[in-house]
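User: Structure with guanosine-5'-diphosphate, tokens only please.
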Amino acid sequence: MTQKDKKGTPVAEKPTLMLPTTIMVRDLGEMLGLSHIDIIKELMKRGVMASVNQSVHFEVASSVATDLGYNVEQGEAPTATEEEAPAAVEGEVVEPEDEKSLQPRPPIVTVMGHVDHGKTSILDAIRETNVTAQEVGAITQHIGAYQVTVNDHVITLIDTPGHEAFTAMRARGASITDIAVLVVAADDGIMPQTKEAISHATAANVPIIVAINKIDLPAANADNVKQQLTQNNIIIEEFGGDVIAVPLSAKTREGLDDLLEHILLVAEVAELKANPDRPAEGAIVESRKHQSRGPLATVIVQKGTLRTGDIVIAGSSYGKVKAMFDENGQRVKEAGPSTPVEVMGLNKVPRAGDTFVVMDNEREARDLAESRGRAETEGTTHAVTLEAVSGDIAAGRVKDLNIVIKADTVGSIEAIRSSIERLSIDEVRVHVISTGTGNVSESDVMLATASRAIILGFTVKTDLGAKKKAEIEGVDIRLYDIIYVLIEDIDVAVKGLMEPVFQDVIDGHAEVRAMFKVRGGKISGCMVTDGLVRRNSLVRVLRDGVMIHESKVSSLRRFKDDVREVANGLECGIGVEGFDTFEEGDVIEAFHTEQKG
Ligand code: GDP
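Assistant:
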């Protein structure tokens, strides 16, 4: 590529750039003449966490290139591997992986279900029954996940049961579960959290195996559970569906082996594979601070092999892996795909659900971690509002409008569901991912975050915790009292007609210290006092705190050179379009607008 548009040179000519459907971060950096760290930072601003060897979709790459002043066109992929890369969803990171390098990996299983139905008992019983002989007597530690061996096959179980943890992790970016075991107590049947668990697993496209627990109890009624499952759209094999249901008792351990064998069967059908011979990637399942060992994080490796000495970044923490421990507290030197290990060596405690990747260089990891840390404190969220989705629909960027319905009665849920699903058009499908009676809860908000869904409430309220969480995560909760208003809103959104809401985002401030005459007017000699000023910034000129002019930067220079941006603490010359009557002490506020959501 000839576009050697080095950082800092003017980009006024708007060169045209051909970008393929997916492009590796490294290649994008080369095309744009930027370091891959700069590209990674740009991607982060757009909510995409990618490492140098990962690929991003055209939409994301073109957004970065457009901001840097390119005209972007979608064109031929420059290399053969990228041509073969699978089509990516917007914002999703895809990895072209050579089929031959893939090897089978153990399934990763999460146990879900209503409180007291026996999730913990099942996890404990499996662990106790299936530890290998030499480990007996070893002190097992709770590190958030463990592995068992069944008929020479390994299964990884996540030791934090419940759909809340599962969806909270998805909301953070980690999708690690391959199979969900839905526990239903045979004496109690399907309860509200069972329904939630079904919605959460289904929304994540994770296959379900039903464990009908407590069959040792006299009040157990497995047939009743099977009927109720059907009513909730879980059709078990016995009734002609494809969901396996295993009756068992965590207490007597009857049926446990059956459950494990069925997990292996579902795993075999899913052909779970990963390449162990590459730098590791995965997710944090649990983390804590140890008094002497410092921050400890249990990670599950998803791809590659993690080794001591590797440099990792997880969310906004980073570090060199000093030591790794398995669930028996034994030191291990490496961990391959689907293996959980507790990692020591991070500079701070990461959050469960953060994804981790191995990086080449500690300095780059630190820079990236620090800039992620800043993004976190600035509260950068990626809100999904109905207006924003409508804008994306209009632009042809989304094809599904995901919705969570909460209403006062089952009757109103059904009325709303059928009315809004009917609004689907060829280009956009209205997809109800979960429904429930009662107020909008934290669990609903987490599901909406993880599935980029909008919550519609009909004659219900929002729980306080849910309200706070929705603000943090940027989830749109829309409450209605009149059904046709609700339907009309969705109709307008589906047609891509809802007006997007824009908000100003301040980039930085510069103080005017001097004025210079140039051809055609005056520019200001400034010092950037916080943030940064960009060549393409919008600006307001403030005098004594009052805005006296609003337009955009017309020129941005350091010494004699045109530059793309000037950071805090540096002097520069700023020209403002349509304004040249600067006075010393004026403040130039640089900002850009972003679509809310
Ligand atoms: P969780 O809240 O889903 O994790 O449920 P627990 O594993 O804590 O179990 C709740 C209660 O049910 C406990 O008192 C268990 O001892 C009991 N329990 C769990 N599994 C069984 C079972 O198979 N049979 C009987 N009789 N009781 C069980």
